[in-house]
Design goal:
Blueprint (H helix, E strand, L loop, with lengths): L1 H14 L25 E5 L8 E6 L9 E2 L2 E2 L3
Antiparallel strand pairs: 1-2, 3-4
Length: 77
Amino acid sequence: MFTRLCLLAPVIALAGCSSLREAPDNPGPCPSALTLYDAARVVNLHGDAVYENVGFTGEIMAVRSLCRYYEDRPIVA
């Protein structure tokens, strides 16, 4: 009995590990979300474009978008 339990426990544990990143199926289309190449990075400069004047930099990475429907109407975020 203990051997069966030891073999069954990992199977049950892994069965509950479906990815949380998967979006549920929608009855209709969802808008696409993407990052434009020239809008993905930002550099804040104070004065001339030299290294010493860089205030901060930023980058948009790994954009994901989820949408869901209430009956047959999309919920606008």
